[in-house]
Automatic annotation (TrEMBL):
A Pfam family of this chain: BLUF
Protein name: Uncharacterized protein
Database matches in InterPro entries: Acylphosphatase-like_dom_sf, BLUF_domain
Signal peptide location: none
Single Gene Ontology MF annotation: blue light photoreceptor activity
Lineage: Bacteria, Pseudomonadati, Pseudomonadota, Gammaproteobacteria, Chromatiales
Domain of life: Bacteria
Length: 162
């Protein structure tokens, strides 16, 4: 899905995407947690990163991200995510034009404890964390997790709160 062909230049967007961890032959023998940590480790910052804000959750080999920012920067981010060999099956599950960003530009915050995600799954008839099966309503509940508690600087840029 090419965002640049779908939305006019400079359009602010909210995009939700999911991917699956690609634990291949190069995976660390100490276990999947080390590989997950590699994916969550902050990447070198670019102007694109500074324009995008969002939230994410990792669990059960899956990653769910909700990102906001200018269409050009989100298109760049998604292209790089698709090329990242640590991820497979990258899929945009939601996209919409927005008037303003709810997430601070330049930040990516981990949200959702195991208990919080289980509550969303139960409420929406989902048995496990699999973002490919999230409905728009489940995604809205996921986004609300970012605003249900005070901001915690330790939750920014991949530091887990669980």
């Amino acid at each position: 899905m090419n965002l640049i062909e779908t939305f006019p230049p400079d359009t602010l967007l909210r995009v939700a995407c999911c991917s699956e961890a690609n634990f291949s032959s190069w995976a660390d023998p100490r276990g999947s947690e080390v590989e997950v940590a590699r994916i969550l480790y902050p990447a070198p910052r670019t102007a694109h990163h500074e324009s995008i804000g969002g939230i994410f959750h990792a669990g059960n080999r899956y990653y769910l991200q909700c990102l906001e920012g200018p269409v050009e920067h989100l298109a760049w981010y998604l292209e790089h995510l698709e090329q990242d060999d640590r991820h497979q099956r990258v899929e945009v599950i939601h996209r919409e034009a927005i008037q303003s960003q709810r997430f601070p530009p330049g930040s990516m915050r981990y949200v959702g404890s195991h208990k919080e995600l289980q509550a969303i799954q139960t409420r929406h008839g989902l048995s496990t964390f699999d973002p490919y099966t999230f409905t728009p309503e489940a995604l809205a509940d996921f986004i609300d997790l970012a605003f249900d508690r005070p901001s915690d600087p330790a939750a920014l840029m991949g530091v887990h709160r669980d």
